[in-house]
């Protein structure tokens, strides 16, 4: 194989390349034939797989010449030869000339059609491991026992309780080897790749291959949702996988996207992006382009590899803040955004600026005003889920967001029109007002101790207890510190529950939200009786820091369990919001939570028509968006009623 394979021409129109694995003895070098066919005139399979590291590549014969491919793709083709599969196969690494930008753009624009046209999409999870059979059997048993075929992707999104294993005659997950095998299956790198979403969603028929094993796609996806939505399974996944590179939430999100797409069809590009955060792609632009085929109303010209990632992100950011999901390029080459539904009731959805607790725009190299629909979510509360401005409709009149595109203030189109079309603006300005300034930002909340993978002996147990005691000691000191920041008039040696300011303090710890989200009453505040469980929660922490298990483990265990039960309501509520932001105090004495990048001197801003305030940092005559914040007693529309607000159109960097 001295001659190296080269692509002879750029593919055009509806032409694709397909490969056929030659059925030679397995001891020989893998050999394929690569041919060109019209997409609509050929039967073929399509491969959904992970490229993996390309540092190590394996040579194969392609049309008699040498072609180096990735290890994972080589394993998939080798398995195809072992199974004696003769049908042509489409695999992007070989079938697209990755060095030809023109071809890559045209072929990626066709990828939705390629996977939708394929007779079968093969999901390749890699070579078989010894434990995979046990994992597969448990997946099938769970799917059968729980009636997975009746699963509703939209049910129980806000629930996070333990899965009842006993009721379904399933072994408990903690330190169970069969569950460990399941966790390794859904922790596979395939579940962290952005392209697999489109490949899976549009497939007419799909099957999962793990080496020689065949798996039911629906069963694997259903179990991914199961693990991602139940506390004991989720925690066990974290213990077994250590610090997993691929979160179980990624697997859950792919599965939920699959069921949602089957139920409701495609959504706006920004909505689809928001449901699949942190997914991997070798090329950052593919974080967007990979989802174009399962999104609404996007012209093929939307996918263009001549754009930089920054340019792609800015285009999506403008579509997001304006709420215009449709994009097309007209004959003159002008980029147009189009809105077709509910034109006269349209509100610019600027709440997307609050979507991410800690936007990573500075790391991504994109402007601060672009909603971060790319980075994994921070732990804790997604405030837009609880403080959506539209939830206030029944309780007060809502001001509409006001935006200016360039120098023009855009108004609604004529009522007679059934669509609203605008050119992609160079800039979006939003009307807002500064109402406060950050005076103090507290130190970070103590980090939870890492769960121990095993407790094989007394020494392991004592070590785990010591780690918990150290954490709870740090928590008690941290709570005392932020309590004094919230109310400096308190006696530093007094009770944390002293003073009339205590009500505001404990409510702020929960973002004034209870353990549950109530669809029928989403604006409902935390009930006052939860303050009692705060007392038990705080006592539980002080009990843990006293290390009394050394005096008598049985008595300590009884007291610990009793306090834990009494503290459970507050623990559950606080657990939903922790580690998302830092506690802060403003110049005017307000308290709340701000993004981690917030600094003293940053400004607190309200945008017209947006319920959630923002932290902004001055940059000359413009503003850098640091992120959304919680300001106690100003989260239910009171912002718009503050005195002396000086509204003006704000420009952002």
From TrEMBL:
Record organism? Lophiotrema nucula
| Protein name as it appears in the record | Heterokaryon incompatibility protein-domain-containing protein
What are the Heterokaryon incompatibility domain coordinates in residue numbering? 44-199
Q: Which PANTHER family match?
A: ANKYRIN REPEAT DOMAIN-CONTAINING PROTEIN 39 HOMOLOG-RELATED, HETEROKARYON INCOMPATIBILITY DOMAIN-CONTAINING PROTEIN
Question: Which superkingdom is the protein from?
Answer: Eukaryota
UniProt cross-references to InterPro entries, sorted A to Z = HET, HetReg/Transcr_Mod
Q: Which Pfam families match?
A: HET, Het-6_barrel
């Amino acid at each position: 194989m001295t001659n190296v394979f080269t692509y002879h021409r750029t593919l055009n129109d509806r032409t694709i390349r397909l490969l056929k694995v030659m059925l030679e003895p397995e001891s020989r070098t893998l050999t394929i034939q690569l041919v060109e066919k019209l997409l609509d005139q050929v039967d073929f399979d399509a491969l959904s797989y992970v490229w993996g590291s390309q540092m190590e590549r394996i040579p194969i014969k392609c049309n008699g010449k040498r072609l180096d491919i990735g290890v994972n793709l080589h394993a998939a083709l080798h398995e195809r030869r072992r199974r004696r599969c003769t049908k042509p196969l489409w695999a992007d690494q070989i079938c697209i000339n990755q060095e030809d930008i023109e071809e890559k753009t045209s072929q990626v624009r066709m990828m939705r059609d390629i996977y939708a046209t394929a007779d079968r999409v093969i999901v390749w999870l890699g070579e078989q491991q010894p434990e995979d059979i046990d994992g597969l059997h448990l997946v099938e048993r769970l799917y059968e026992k729980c009636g997975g075929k009746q699963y509703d992707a939209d049910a129980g999104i806000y629930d996070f309780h333990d899965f009842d294993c006993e009721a379904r005659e399933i072994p408990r997950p903690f330190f169970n080897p069969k569950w460990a095998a399941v966790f390794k299956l859904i922790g596979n790198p395939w579940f962290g790749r952005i392209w697999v979403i489109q490949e899976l969603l549009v497939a007419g028929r799909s099957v999962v291959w793990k080496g020689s094993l065949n798996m039911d796609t629906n069963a694997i996806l259903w179990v991914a949702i199961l693990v991602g939505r139940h506390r004991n399974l989720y925690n066990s996944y974290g213990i077994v996988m250590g610090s997993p590179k691929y979160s179980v939430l990624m697997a859950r999100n792919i599965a939920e996207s699959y069921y949602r797409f089957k139920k409701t069809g495609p959504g706006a590009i920004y909505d689809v992006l928001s449901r699949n955060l942190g997914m991997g792609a070798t090329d950052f632009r593919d974080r967007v382009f990979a989802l174009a085929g399962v999104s609404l109303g996007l012209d093929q010209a939307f996918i263009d590899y001549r754009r930089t990632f920054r340019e792609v992100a800015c285009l999506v950011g403008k579509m997001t803040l304006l709420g215009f999901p449709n994009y097309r390029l007209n004959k003159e080459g002008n980029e147009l955004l189009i809105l077709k539904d509910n034109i006269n009731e349209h509100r610019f959805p600027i709440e997307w600026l609050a979507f991410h607790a800690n936007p990573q725009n500075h790391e991504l190299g994109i402007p601060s005003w672009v909603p971060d629909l790319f980075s994994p979510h921070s732990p804790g509360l997604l405030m837009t889920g609880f403080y959506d401005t539209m939830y206030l409709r029944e309780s007060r009149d809502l001001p509409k967001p006001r935006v200016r595109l360039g120098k023009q203030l855009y108004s609604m189109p004529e009522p007679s029109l059934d669509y609203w079309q605008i050119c992609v603006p160079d800039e979006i300005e939003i009307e807002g007002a500064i109402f406060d300034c950050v005076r103090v930002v507290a130190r970070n909340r103590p980090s939870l101790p890492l769960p121990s993978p095993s407790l094989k002996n007394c020494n392991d147990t004592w070590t785990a207890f010591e780690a918990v005691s150290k954490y709870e000691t740090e928590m008690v000191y941290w709570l005392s510190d932020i309590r004094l920041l919230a109310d400096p008039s308190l006696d530093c040696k007094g009770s944390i529950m002293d003073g009339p300011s205590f009500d505001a303090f404990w409510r702020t710890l929960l973002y004034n939200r209870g353990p549950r989200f109530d669809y029928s009453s989403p604006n409902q505040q935390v009930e006052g009786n939860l303050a009692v469980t705060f007392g038990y929660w705080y006592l539980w922490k002080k009990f843990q820091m006293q290390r009394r298990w050394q005096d008598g483990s049985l008595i300590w265990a009884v007291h610990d369990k009793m306090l834990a039960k009494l503290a459970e309501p507050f623990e559950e509520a606080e657990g939903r919001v922790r580690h998302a932001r830092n506690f802060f105090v403003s110049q005017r004495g307000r308290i709340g939570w701000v993004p981690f990048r917030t600094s003293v001197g940053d400004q607190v801003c309200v945008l017209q028509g947006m319920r959630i305030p923002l932290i902004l940092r001055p940059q000359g005559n413009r503003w850098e968006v640091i992120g959304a914040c919680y300001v106690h007693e100003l989260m239910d529309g009171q912002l718009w009623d503050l005195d002396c607000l000086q509204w003006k159109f704000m420009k952002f960097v």
